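Hi R.,

Here are the chain sequences for the assembly we discussed:
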Amino acid sequence: MTNQLPLLEVRDLDIAYGDVQVVFAMNMVVGQQELVGLVGGNGSGKSTILRAVSGMLKPKRGSILLQGQEISGISPHQLTDLGVAHVPMGRQLFPAMSVEENLEMGAYLKRSKANKKQNLEKVYAFFPRLLEKRKLFAGSLSGGEQQMIAIGRALMSEPTILLMDEPSLGLAPKVVQEVMQVIHSLRTLHLTVLLVEQNVRQVLKITDRAYVLEHGKLVIEGQSQGLLENDAVKRAYLGL
Amino acid sequence: MEFFSQGLQGLIDGLLTGGVYAMIGAGMSLIFGVMRVVNFGHGDFVILGMYAAFASNQYLKLDPYVSLLVVLPLAFVFGFVLHRAILAKLLGANDQTTKLATLGLGLIATNLVLLQFGTEPKTVYTEYATNAWRIPLFGLELRISEVRFYAVIITALLIFGLNMMLYRTELGRAIRATAQNRLGAELQGVDTKKIYAIVYGIGVVLAAAAGVLLLPLLSATPTLGSVFTNKSFVVTILGGLGSLPGAIGGGLILGVVESLGSSLFPLMNSHFGANYRDAYGLIIFLIVLLFRPEGLFGRTVKRV
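And here is the predicted structure of the full complex:
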């Protein structure tokens, strides 16, 4: 039954900061094991949508459904318990804790605590570099490595869906490539991912489908491959 | 010779009193470190502890040290509920609002005590209050007051327990995570509002414990609250706000400076006596603020 439902569905979502509305009638669907991109320029409202999905702000109107269950207005720590893991903008690590402690914090809740050991091994297998540096303070690692900790920490919670907010922000171009490769390879873990990014070209290269936002409105959606070849998208975002 | 003997005695007394100051400072420092709230009512919670011990001695005939078993759990519940009911509503409000709220809570606490017990200083009589061990050392005789010694031992146990809790338990890790990055902790499923309430409860426990331990030494007066708030400021600033080892160092330094100041200066100059006890601590405070504003052991921690 739940397999027929989309994992995440956003319906007629309006979001406002005070009197200023920033997202208008957004509709979006993320299916099981899909890698979906949500892209747009600065201030297009993409991060705002993600913040609403992860419970950090309450939408003005519309609904957010996780496996058919309404989740708008639920606090972030309760959402984590429902299987929504968030790799937040700016990573939000615990700088004065070791890499390993940061990862273990990902398994804070009961739902994932029992499998903490195995999951830690899986994360280290996925990011061998973190195993080498597991005793170091998270704050002492490079930006790219910190992004890996943030992703690893989210994986530790055994998520049903992974939300990623601008993982390339503040990273050197070469490191951005590397992080995108990592996200692409998350596919091998049969994860469902919603990726919010400003870096449109990179996202379209690695995702299955994508939604393109402009000024808080959905302008175009479709298979990422198709969007890469779409003339309007090329002109507006790919600089071609 | 007298100077030397007085000095050594002052040092010992200072370290013993300083231990208790350290505990008061540790509570304030923990509250600041985790929730960035300066707890202006901290000293008033010390007073609450004193009166709680006094009341349990008066009505339940409990020895002050035994009353810790009753007072500390009550103090935790009190702090937890206080945060849930009042301070949690002010999350996200500006600094001034929270400062005024903690100040107000302290004022209410002090005045409730005043209403109930009056202005007259209250003392608890214990047989051991004036006992002291005499230790001969190089021809000098040093006195170690029993009550101060117990105070330091219990303080050390409580601070050791706090440290174990912070670094060896899941709850402790969640507290440290919340302190380092609240949003990050919330996204891992930590109920950070509850963590705040727990931390406030622990802060109140440490303050109240200090009050109980000081009761056999001092008489309880409702208005002493601001004195202890000032002392906890000095302790935390000396050690660096938000640092537990810093608070311990700061407390010991403050205890020693006060004690040496009030025992040695009268020998040199009759104008400066024990009456200036509090001033010596504040002088050190000013000197440290001038030259090391981040505190003696403080360092600026960068956020990721």
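Chain A touches chain B at residues 54, 56, 75-77, 80-81, 85-86, 88, 90-97, 101, 104-106, 108-109, 138-139, 146, 153, 157 (CB under 8 Å). The mean pLDDT of chain A is 93.

Let me know if anything looks off.

Best,
T.
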